[in-house]
Structure formats: structure tokens, C-alpha cells
Write a structure and sequence with these properties.
- With 684 residues, the protein is α/β, with parallel strands linked by helices.
- The protein has 18 helices and 25 strands.
- Among the domains are: 133 residues, no CATH class; 208 residues, 3-Layer(aba) Sandwich (Rossmann fold); 45 residues, Immunoglobulin-like (Sandwich).
Length: 684
């Protein structure tokens, strides 16, 4: 558990002073000064108290090399401060002005095919470019020196959605330096990469290139290390600018906006450098699974911050513009999405963006103030959200207690989805998401935890798919089970070491003694699937759907575990598919196949019951009514109705709804799309 820093305390003080933060991305450089004054007035009407300014303003501040145009930003910050609106001031380095790439083409990124990208969009920079970083540091230093003490500035925002990848010569130079630091000698690298295969032996680090387009498959460890390097390189860019801001005298919290389970950045490595975790979330309104899937992302954000509150930095108030087919949200749906984030630990709810753009690539991306203006359903919905967040101020800073942990590791994700596996259909995030949905349906809170965790304090630990399992993780899982935890390990886990080299021996090699089964082969399952039969020891031989096993299965044998389900036909007939192994005071469960949703639900339900895990109501964790989301944050029980029909829920005791002031006793009605925030006592 990290120590709370002074900048973090400054964020908490801001929330204590102003209540839950509400606002969005504000881009005044796109509008004339008379519009700025209207904006401030409408923000006040809507209850907006925090806006991010300057994310894409580099070319406005520095229209030509070395120029500095501050007058517009001075006026904007003064107007916002006079209006009682705090500012998250951005270092505008995500989109360099065109002149930088034209004068210094080495600052532009190169894709895998060797094509150098050109200015004219956004994110057109190479994180490895020293010239880019010098210019980014220069404008950030001048910005911070000018505004470090401005009373409007309560947070700093570095960059935007870091995720740039470069395969050019600048990246090749930095990748080699990263490899030298990691391995020390070229002999050590050759061993780690297994370069004896396909005659890939390197005589010197200078021979190594990024994994550009090749005739056939890339060395999987080279690919894994390039992913690690790329994430670290972006983190180095962030750290440089964070330090520049600090050196200029700024004491406010510094953040950058994450992107959920982003495939290009290892946020476990980043989290310790972020004063307040922030995230951008754009669930697809067309997906029936969106409420559960975005809840998983929100639980990740809370977990990255060691359980502290976080910032929903961006979301859409209605439709996005970048999907092929963009469904709008209703104001009711937008409200529910915002309150869901608060229920899961957010102390700030913001949107992209405040005023809808007339020009540019995102002219049809919705905004809090749409093209139609304030006389619109969208803006009326915004005003309602502002009122709601004021009423929910008692939950600010409150935590969520979780008895369940879900193991997730970025390196394992990257390595486990390299080409040339038993099946390309096994997807790490798809499995983690499916397992999490079963917790969500039961109102069970979960922390997302890294492989370096000790797992103590959790009743249940889920490992849906962890291709890499290192000795310290295996030992920590064993200790947790011996102490009484229930651990569930999914298929194709514990396959490889930290270098993505397959562990030799019967799998899962490092978890074999824990799970009490071992395997000798992984294989794809025919498209028709493979039926499973439950043993009498698993709920009196319950009936399983056919086919239960899909995508991938393992050829297992029991080594002391109770076999709960077996394959019934084909080459795997009689082979264990699910086993349970008591170890110390706890139990390890091993699932040797990807199974259908119903079988997975039955398994997770049984594990939670055996571990004594309860739901948000404090009851045994059974499946809740369809569409109901239940989350307890501190003393407040949030109930969200994602269904199209009303729900009538029994809640013990007398409670007060913070959103309506209504007192309830026993029965709580929730209309479609509505939210209840029930507290057992008056906290205002």
C-alpha cells in the first residue's frame, strides 16, 4: 500500500471543498472570447466545477518555433476562476504543431511497415525522439512557470491518452538502450530470447531492431520486450514532464488519462507515478454487456490507486463519432453511466467535451453543450447530473471493500496472445470479462490485482487466464490457499516464464502442487464443442449444457484433486475438465477448458458460496434480478437498474435515498434506467 502524498491530499481537499467534481474537456481556443463568457455562465448553471484546459493547444500557444501566446489562456483561466470553476491544466504535448514534424521529421513516428506518418492529425510524435521531448519539455516548463500559482489551477494534466508506438530508427536506438539495461550482456539476451531457434543469434545489441514487418512470425520474446519497452518509453515521457512541472514550483496533483485495459501500456508500472488515477471510458451503448464490462474497468481504476477514489476524465454524453455506427445515449443513460462511476469509486465525473466542435474530426462527437445549444435534452440532462453530484457529496472519499481479487498482468496478456499458439481464439480479456460478469451479476465487489500481489485478505482469487506465472506469484497463491482462500485457475495458465519461454514439465508447472492436477498437452476444441459430464461430487452430478467445453482444452490427470467434471467423447473422453483440491485451510479449483457461460456461472457461484463471499446486500452471493447492479461504497448502497422494466428490491432496514431524499423501509422500487443511493443514516 503506497503512502498518500501531499498532491493526493490536495485533490482530496478539492473534493472536500467543492464536492464531487463535475465537468469536462474545455477547448476555448476553438471559439471567440465572447463565447467564453457564455460558457462560464452555462457551466455555473450546470453545476460544473472542474474543466480540463489546453490538451490540444500547443499550436495556439506556440504557432511558430519559440513563440509564446499566453494572453488568451490568461483570460480563460481568470474567467474560470472568477466563475468558481477549477482547472485541470494540460501540458499540450499530445499533438505537436505541424511545424515540428515538417522541420524535424525524425520526431514523427514510423509504423511496422516502415512508413513515416505525417502531421495533420493528432499523436504524431515518436516517444523516442529526443527533439520532440526537448520541445515538449520547453513548452511544459514555460506553461508551469507561468501558471503554477494561478488560483484557478487545481490539477495538472500531462499529455493525453498515452499510447503512441514507433518502429523507426529513434525507437531502435532507445530499444537497444532499454535491452542493455534489462539484460546487461548480449549473451543473456540470446538466452532469454531463445535465439538458437531459426538462427536468430545476435552478436551485438546494435544488430537488434524493433519488430517491424518480417517474412514470417516475430520472435515472441522480442515482441514481448518491445511492448514492455514501448510502455516504459511512454512512462519516461510522462515522468519527464511531471518533473518539469514540479521543478517549476507546482504543488498541485498531476495526472494523465488512462484508457482502461489499454493494450499498449502497463498501468501497473504507471500507477505509482500518478497522483490521482484518471481514465477515459467509452462503453458501446449498443452492447448489452456494457454495464458489466465498464464496471470491470472502473474496478481496475480503483485498484490502480490502492482503493482510493479516481477521476472519470472522459466519457460521451451521447454519441461518439469514431465507431462505424454510433448510437446515442439518452440523458437517462448518460446519468446512469456517471452515477455508476461514482458508485465504483469515482470522485470526479467529466466528459469529452464541454462545447461541441463545429470543425475538425470530432465535429459529430457529442458534448455537454451540443450544437443545438442549452435548449436541448442533452443540456437539461447535464444540469440534472450536476444536481445529482451535489447530493452525493457524502460518498466522496469513501472506499469499496472487496473479498474477491482478479489477477491481471499486462506482460502475461501480451505474451499470451502472440501468434502460433494452440488456438488464436483464446483471448485473455474476453475470459477476464466473462468471469467478471459473473461477479457483477451477483453484486460482488472485486479488486483487480497484479501478479506481484501477496493476495492476503481475499476470500477468493480468480485467475481466468494468466499465461505467465512466475515463482513469486505461484508461492503467493499457495500461501493464500493454505490460509483459507479459494483460488480458481483457468485454462492455459502458468504456461510460460517471464521471458515467454514455455515451462517444461507437466503443466501448470509452478501451480501443479497447488491445483492437484497436471497436463501434458493443450489443444483446440472442434467448432462443435465438447460435452462435459459433472461428477456426483459436484452438486450431485448437475446437468451441464452441451457442449460445455469450447475453444481450448487440456489433457489432464488428477494428482490428488477431486475431479468434478470430465469430457465425455472423442480423444479426451474421461479426461478431467474441472477439479477441486483442498490445501491447508483453503481450496484450489482448476478449470482445464474454456467452458460455456452457464457452466462458468455455476462454478463461480459455488466457489463464492464455499468461500463465504457476500454481495452488496450482505447476503450470500446469488444471481441478482436481471439488469440490477448493486455496489456498496462506504455506507451507501447504490442500486442501478440497467433493465427496460421496473425492479422492486427488498432492502433490509430503514434507509434514505441521497438522490431523492425519499425514506424507504423494506422495499425499494427502481424505474428503468434509474439509480438509488441508499444510506442507513443521514450523513449530511
Amino acid at each position: 500500500m503506497s503512502t498518500t502524498t501531499a498532491p493526493r491530499r490536495a485533490f482530496d481537499a478539492l473534493i472536500t471543498e467543492r464536492g464531487l467534481a463535475f465537468g469536462g474537456d474545455y477547448n476555448p481556443e476553438q471559439w471567440a472570447p465572447d463565447v467564453w463568457r457564455e460558457d462560464v455562465e452555462l457551466m455555473q448553471q450546470a453545476g460544473v466545477n472542474l474543466v480540463t484546459v489546453g490538451v490540444f493547444s500547443w499550436a495556439t500557444i506556440e504557432p511558430t518555433p519559440g513563440a509564446r501566446e499566453w494572453a488568451w489562456l490568461d483570460e480563460v483561466l481568470d474567467l474560470l476562476h472568477a466563475g468558481g470553476i477549477a482547472v485541470d491544466l494540460a501540458s499540450p504535448v499530445a499533438s505537436p504543431p505541424p511545424w515540428l514534424g515538417i522541420r524535424h521529421p525524425e520526431t514523427l513516428p514510423v509504423d511496422r511497415d516502415g512508413v513515416r506518418l505525417i502531421p495533420g492529425s493528432r499523436n504524431q510524435f515518436s516517444p523516442a525522439s529526443r527533439v520532440y521531448r526537448q520541445h515538449a519539455a520547453a513548452i511544459t516548463r514555460d506553461l508551469a512557470e507561468r501558471y503554477a500559482d494561478h488560483p484557478a489551477v487545481r490539477m495538472w494534466h500531462v499529455g493525453n491518452e498515452y499510447g503512441q508506438i514507433d518502429h523507426g530508427d529513434e525507437a531502435a536506438r532507445e530499444f537497444r538502450l532499454w535491452l542493455r539495461r534489462r539484460y546487461g550482456t548480449i549473451e543473456t539476451l540470446n538466452e532469454a530470447w531463445g535465439t538458437a531457434f531459426w538462427s536468430q543469434h545476435y552478436a551485438d545489441f546494435d544488430e537488434i531492431l524493433p519488430p517491424r514487418r518480417m517474412p514470417y512470425l516475430v520472435n515472441p520474446t522480442q515482441s514481448l520486450d518491445f511492448r514492455r519497452y514501448s510502455s516504459d518509453q511512454l512512462l519516461e515521457c510522462y515522468r519527464e514532464l511531471r518533473d518539469v512541472i514540479r521543478d517549476a514550483g507546482a504543488s498541485q496533483p498531476i495526472t494523465t488519462n488512462f484508457m482502461g485495459f489499454h493494450a499498449l501500456t502497463d498501468y501497473w508500472a504507471w500507477a505509482g507515478d500518478i497522483d490521482v488515477i484518471s481514465d477515459d471510458q467509452y462503453p458501446d451503448p449498443a452492447s448489452p454487456h456494457a454495464p458489466a464490462d465498464i464496471a470491470l474497468v472502473q474496478d481496475l481504476m480503483r485498484s490502480l490507486g490502492d482503493g482510493r477514489s479516481w477521476v472519470l476524465m472522459e466519457q460521451a454524453i451521447s454519441a461518439t463519432s469514431w465507431r462505424e455506427h454510433n448510437l446515442p445515449k439518452s440523458p437517462l443513460r448518460a446519468r446512469r453511466d456517471s452515477l455508476q462511476a461514482v458508485a465504483r469509486g469515482a470522485d470526479a465525473v467529466c466528459y469529452f467535451q464541454w462545447r461541441q466542435a463545429r470543425a475538425g474530426a470530432e465535429r459529430f462527437h457529442s458534448a455537454m453543450l451540443p450544437h443545438a445549444g442549452a435548449d436541448s435534452d442533452v443540456f437539461r440532462g447535464v444540469r440534472r447530473q450536476g444536481d445529482d453530484l451535489k447530493k452525493l457529496s457524502p460518498v466522496a472519499g469513501a472506499r469499496i471493500d472487496a473479498d474477491v481479487a482478479i489477477l491481471f498482468d499486462w506482460s502475461s496478456w501480451w505474451a499470451g496472445e502472440e501468434p502460433a499458439r494452440p488456438t488464436a481464439r483464446l483471448n485473455t480479456m474476453a475470459e477476464i470479462t466473462r468471469w467478471y460478469r459473473e461477479l457483477w451479476r451477483r453484486g460482488v465487489a472485486a479488486d483487480v490485482v497484479p501478479a506481484a500481489s501477496d493476495f492476503s485478505g481475499y476470500r477468493t482469487i480468480l485467475v481466468p487466464h494468466s499465461y505467465i506465472v512466475e515463482p513469486h506469484t505461484a508461492a503467493a497463491l499457495h500461501r493464500a490457499v493454505e490460509a483459507g482462500a479459494h483460488v480458481v485457475v483457468g485454462p492455459f495458465s502458468g504456461v510460460a516464464d517471464a521471458n515467454a519461454q514455455v515451462l517444461t514439465g507437466r503443466s501448470p508447472v509452478l501451480l501443479r502442487a497447488l491445483v492437484g492436477v497436471s497436463g501434458e498437452e493443450w489443444g483446440g476444441v472442434p467448432d462443435a464443442g465438447s460435452p462435459l459430464a459433472a461428477d456426483e461430487r459436484w452438486d450431485a452430478g448437475r446437468t451441464l449444457p452441451e457442449p460445455s467445453a469450447r475453444i481450448l482444452a487440456e489433457r489432464l490427470r488428477s494428482e490428488g484433486a477431486d475431479v468434478l467434471a470430465r469430457h465425455t467423447i472423442g480423444d479426451l473422453a474421461g479426461v478431467p475438465a474441472l477439479a477441486r483440491h483442498d490445501v491447508g485451510d483453503g481450496t484450489a479449483w482448476y478449470l482445464g477448458a474454456v467452458v460455456d457461460d452457464a457452466t462458468l456461472s455455476a462454478l463461480i457461484g459455488d466457489v463464492l458460496a464455499a468461500a463465504g463471499v457476500t454481495d452488496a446486500f450482505g447476503a450470500s452471493a446469488g444471481v441478482l434480478p436481471e439488469g440490477l447492479e448493486a455496489v456498496r461504497r462506504g455506507d451507501v448502497l447504490f442500486l442501478l437498474n440497467h433493465a427496460d422494466t421496473p425492479l422492486d428490491i427488498t432492502v433490509e432496514g430503514s434507509r434514505i435515498d441521497l438522490l431523492t431524499g425519499e425514506e424507504t423501509n423494506g422495499s425499494v422500487g427502481i424505474a428503468p434506467g434509474e439509480v438509488r443511493a441508499l444510506t442507513e443514516r443521514r450523513t449530511w
